[in-house]
Amino acid sequence: MTGRIQAIRHVAVIGAGIVGACTALHLTRAGFRVTLIDRDAPGLGASFGNGAVIGEEAVVPVATPGILRRVPGMLRDPLGPLSVRWGYLPRIAPWLMRFLAASNPRRVEEISIALAALLKGSLAAYRELLEDAGAPHMLKRSGWICVFETEEGFRAFQPLLALQHRRGVRHGLLGAAELRQFEPALAPIFARAIHYPDVNYTIDCQGLVEVLVQASLHRGGTLRRAAAHGFDIGPEGPRAVLTNEGPVPCDAVVVAAGAWSRDLAKMLGADVPLDTERGYHVQIADPGVMPRQPVYSTERGIVATPLEAGLRVGGTVELGGLKAAPNWDRAEILLKQGRRWFPGLRTEGHSRWMGFRPSMPDSLPVIGRTPAFSNAILAFGHGHCGMMMGARTGEIVADLLAGRDPGIDMSPYGSERF
Ligand SMILES: Cc1cc2nc3c(=O)[nH]c(=O)nc-3n(C[C@H](O)[C@H](O)[C@H](O)COP(=O)(O)OP(=O)(O)OC[C@H]3O[C@@H](n4cnc5c(N)ncnc54)[C@H](O)[C@@H]3O)c2cc1C
After folding, report:
1. How many structural domains compose the chain?
2. Alpha-carbon distance 112 to 118, whole Å?
3. Is residue 167 domain-resident?
4. Looking at the structure, do residues 215 and 176 belong to the same domain, yes or no?
5. How many angstroms is it from 18 CA to the middle of ligand 1?
6. Structural domain harbouring 96
7. What are the tens digits of pLDDT across the range 96-114?
8. Best CA proximity match to 299, nearest among 3, 85, 6, 80
9. Which CATH number is 93's domain given?
10. CATH no. for residue 245?
11. Residues 158 and 25 in one domain
């Protein structure tokens, strides 16, 4: 395997979302020739429309103990934080079974440890890349707050707060009156809040991807606008990516195609249960009122972030696959909550968006070599945390291809874990 790694000069990275962009920049910094391939302009996938939050506190997986009890209630409300397109249920049933299996307390603890290991150093990793890209202002040091409308919601969160505490996440508690002072833009409808001081956010999600891609081009990388549909596989693994614009010869390939990675991974010998949790946002250019930092509600699965281009209210989960048309009623819920949270919010001229989180049932991404080929690396499935994990993922992929020890136990993220 070492001989093969030493022979790697040219790496093709499929997907110019946050994961592919960070990977391409790390690889060019490590001295590789890089071709970044995307069928679209960089940063137009899930990385375009997310909540923009980048921190190291996201150590709680999506499936937690008691989720089985809570899901039926959530599903009964078509406009609640979780919905299923019923026609898609047979397709996603195996994913859901794995999702539920990942919610037992022992497994949640293991997953949380693996999430924390991957998140550790995320902010430093971004700062380093953004210094390189000449754009340190893209990351804003703000902290964020998690709000609770009811005491019951706050009490229900206690086991998860304890989990964060065990992983060393710093936080402070705010009562209703303290919250009003701390974040005056919010309506007095919240009973409690948790403040996480170490969390940051990016002021422009797509802009962040773009500056990272540009930095990789500055270092000699190439961007190809093409859709990848397969690989030319030789005796030592993939030697070209096949695209609608012709083959891209390479010595190694990285699949970072977000929610669309499953078929490509399968062609490289890795059969992974990747699906998508669709999410929505509304964005208001001239909202009239802005919070000072991102505000999140676990009760509603919604985050409101003060971006450079306006207030973005986004979130919720819809299980419906990659093909169904958006259900814009779900964007309406976000607008409605935005008006409730921020008195005086002006919503005229808002834009709306739907995107595809690349989601693994156990909330852990797939990062590592395929079982079949040492020169084929998978880097996708970051679910709700791809913005946070992008920079560290790129660093790890570059280490693997350079034959360096990434300094982290990679087994929790392997494609063979299922
Ligand atoms: C509403 C919402 C809120 C979120 N909030 C946050 C948050 O606050 N913080 C956070 O960390 N994460 C958040 N996320 C999750 C985050 O957005 C994703 O995890 C992350 O963007 C995934 O990045 P990616 O690069 O893997 O995928 P993507 O950004 O989807 O990029 C994949 C790229 O691959 C390209 N591609 C796919 N197939 C092919 C092909 N065959 N050939 C060529 N190109 C191809 C696509 O065009 C796309 O550009 C949120 C997600 C949503 C939906």
Report:
1. 2
2. 10
3. yes
4. no
5. 7
6. 57-116+134-201+274-359
7. 999 999 999 999 999 999 9
8. 80
9. 3.30.9.10
10. 3.50.50.60
11. no
Both tokens assigned to 348: 């005229």
Nearest CA to ligand 1 atom 18: 386
Q: Count CB-CB contacts under 10 A for residue 165.
A: 12
Tens-place pLDDT, residues 155-166: 999 999 999 999
Q: Of 242, 262, 357, which is best to mutate to test ligand 1, by the most ligand atoms within 8 angstroms of its C-beta?
A: 357
395 in helix, strand or coil? helix
Q: Which of 313, 344, 359 is the last residue of a domain?
A: 359
Provide the pairing of β-strand 10-14 with 252-255. parallel
Q: Which atom of ligand 1 is nearest to the CA of 356?
A: 53
Which atom of ligand 1 is found nearest the CA of 381?
A: 26
Residues 323 and 373 in one domain: no
Q: Model-level pTM?
A: 0.97
Cβ of 312 below 6 Å from ligand 1: no
Ligand 1 geometric centre to CA of 258 (Å): 5
Candidate from 18, 22, 44, 50 with most ligand 1 atoms within 8 A of CB, to mutate = 50
Tens of pLDDT, residues 228-277: 999 999 999 999 999 999 999 999 999 999 999 999 999 999 999 999 99
Burial zone of 246 (CB within 10 Å; 0-12 exposed, 13-18 middle, 19+ buried): exposed
* Nearest protein Cα to ligand 1, atom 22: 386
